[in-house]
Structure formats: structure tokens, C-alpha cells
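User: My instructor asked us to take a sequence, write out its structure as C-alpha cells, and then describe one feature of it. I'm not sure where to start. Here is the sequence I was given:
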Amino acid sequence: MKLSTKGRYAVMAMVDLARHAQAKPVSLSDIATRQEISLSYLEQLFARLRRAGLVKSVRGPGGGYRLTRGSAETRVSEIILAVDEPIKATRCTEMGATGCRADRSKCLTHDLWEELGNQIHMFLSSVTLLDVLERKLSPRIAEAPTAAAAKSDAMAAAS
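Assistant: Let's start with the prediction itself. The C-alpha cells for your sequence are:
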């Protein structure tokens, strides 16, 4: 699965906003400069983030954007979904309970990729902007089984 620039840039910009919006609103041009993202692209993303209620704009001199909630309450999954980035790993189109293929059956790997998408969504739902700012992602990543452990488990099962 590859996350598009919409989702990645929206998260980068929101983390930047959370980091710099302590005393005053943050301008998109400042975020664009710091994160090396096109200003016009950021404007499009922030329009969606505003509609989703994740940011609010402040007009006038010294205006810009603020988070509507604290960084500890804003989840990465919300940001990605706000910019219309689906969190799924299947290439299948949704066709309900009947399946995703032309004959209305599921492809052989559909359940695998669908569960991967669910796991990605659960992970991103567990991460807040504050977690990213404070670099508190290592414990979550460390909980995942390593390739060596998986290989060891597979060898033990085969014996």
C-alpha cells in the first residue's frame, strides 16, 4: 500500500501546525516553507481539513490556522480521512458482502489485504499528533513481531 502525497502532506502540515501554533495562528506560507510543500497544494488540503473540523482559520494581520482540538486529541487517521485518502490496501472495489470480482466473488487475497487495511487504520487511529511530535511511535512498532521471530515460529511449527 502506498499512501499518496495528499495524506502524507496533510499529516506533515498538521504536525507542523501542532508544533508551531502555541501562541498564535500559523500561516500556510510558513508551513509550506518549513515542510517544502507547495502553498497552493496546502491551501487545498487545509480547505478539506477545515471542512472536517480539524483546523480553524483566523483572518487578519497575524492570521493563519489553529488546531480545533489539542494535539493529544487529534488522530492521524482523522487527518488522512479528511483529505479523502482511503485507508485500505485492497485493489478491489467495494461490492458489499457478495465480493469484488466481476462474478461477485472475492479475489483469493481479498481478506488478506482488507485485514491489512484494517490494521493500518487501527494503527493510525492509535497515533495522535502529540505522539508524532514527541516521537512516541517506537513502542507501537516494537510490539509488532519481527521477521526473525516470525521465521522462528514458522520453523518451530514445521518440526
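For the description part of your assignment, you could build on this observation: The mean pLDDT is 83. Try explaining in your own words what that tells you about the chain.
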